[in-house]
Specification:
The protein has helices at about 65-80, 85-90, 95-100, 100-110; strands at about 30-40, 45-50, 55-60, 115-125, 130-140, 145-160, 160-174. With about 170 residues, it is α+β, with helices and mostly antiparallel strands. It has a single domain (about 30-174), classed as Roll (Nuclear Transport Factor 2, Chain: A). The chain has a seven-stranded antiparallel sheet with strand order 2-3-1-4-5-6-7. It is globular, with a radius of gyration of 15 Å.
Length: about 170
């Protein structure tokens, strides 16, 4: 079920971090998600301002059911990275994409992601596989500075769980 729009642009400062995994896509994008946040931990509330946190979320109906779950795993992956939860982010990828957990997590921590902004769209869906297109993905980290990412993620259902199974990304300096 592809066809609604949801937007997620997330900006979070976090200690440690690194470059993303990615995928390749078609362009039937009709569903996206957008969140904006700054803080060590982002929450999805309407609008909250405190000395340490500012979060605003905008969303409308997105894909539901399995298609929605496939798109959600990519959003959750980046939410985890933005919040410095690298082990949780690694668990959303197949080992063939991410490699071993210890090395992947260490790479994220060494890069030192400080800011993440993203927007993804469901490009295609067919039962056990989906393609998620990067509408916007920008990272700022201590190792590489500001980078804009393009490409797609392949997401597959394995043992009842949606996982990032392909990452086709290119980065370009901002």
């Amino acid at each position: 079920m592809v066809g609604a729009a949801v937007a997620v642009a997330l900006v979070v400062g976090s200690p440690g971090g690194s470059a993303p995994a990615a995928a390749t896509a078609a362009s039937q994008a009709t569903a996206t998600t957008t969140v904006t946040a700054t803080a060590q931990t982002a929450t999805e509330t309407s609008t909250t301002e405190t000395a340490e946190e500012e979060t605003s979320t905008t969303s409308s109906a997105g894909p539901s059911g399995e298609a929605g779950a496939a798109l959600a795993v990519v959003n959750e992956h980046w939410q985890d990275i933005a919040e410095g939860r690298y082990e949780a982010a690694w668990e959303k990828e197949t080992e063939s994409v991410a490699g071993g957990e210890e090395n992947w997590v260490r790479g994220q921590e060494e890069a030192g992601i400080e800011k993440v902004s993203y927007d993804f769209a469901l490009a295609s869906f067919s039962g056990q596989h989906a393609t998620v297109r990067i509408v916007k993905l920008q990272t700022v980290d201590r190792r590489y500075g500001c980078r804009n990412w393009t490409g797609t993620y392949g997401v597959s259902k394995e043992n009842g769980q949606w996982l990032i199974s392909e990452a086709h990304l290119e980065s370009h300096p901002c």
